[in-house]
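To the wet lab folks,

You asked to see what we're planning to order before we commit. Fair enough. Below is the target structure as tokens, and below that is the sequence we designed to fit it. If anything looks off to you, flag it before the synthesis order goes out.
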């Protein structure tokens, strides 16, 4: 099952307090970026983020889920709390790897 554009728009609205949120469509799902750094994605209408230390600190009871077969586990995030999402991404940014340079 792929994710809906409506769910993508809802998540983007929840993240609207932050600048430089972008996305890229990938095989029916959406990769999400903050300041050019990949922090997670929307998979089967679920927001999943990388399990970096700061994310684990903000979400100590988070559930791990697999975005697709063969992928690493990611943290399932409740998108209803707009303020928590903003704080979470601000905390995560320093730990996220810089984008790879294109050749």
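Sequence we intend to order:
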């Amino acid at each position: 099952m792929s994710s809906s554009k409506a769910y993508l728009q809802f998540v983007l609205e929840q993240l609207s307090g932050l600048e430089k949120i972008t996305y890229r469509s990938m095989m029916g799902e959406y990769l999400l970026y903050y300041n050019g750094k990949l922090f997670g994605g929307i998979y089967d209408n679920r927001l999943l983020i990388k399990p970096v230390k700061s994310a684990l600190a903000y979400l100590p009871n988070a559930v791990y889920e697999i975005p697709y077969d063969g992928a690493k586990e990611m943290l399932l995030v409740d998108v209803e709390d707009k303020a928590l999402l903003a704080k979470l991404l601000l905390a995560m940014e320093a730990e996220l790897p810089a984008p790879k340079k294109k050749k």
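Structural context that might help your review: The CA atoms of residues 17 and 83 lie 8 Å apart. The beta strands are 21-26, 29-34, 37-43, 46-49, 64-65, 74-77.

Thanks,
Computational group
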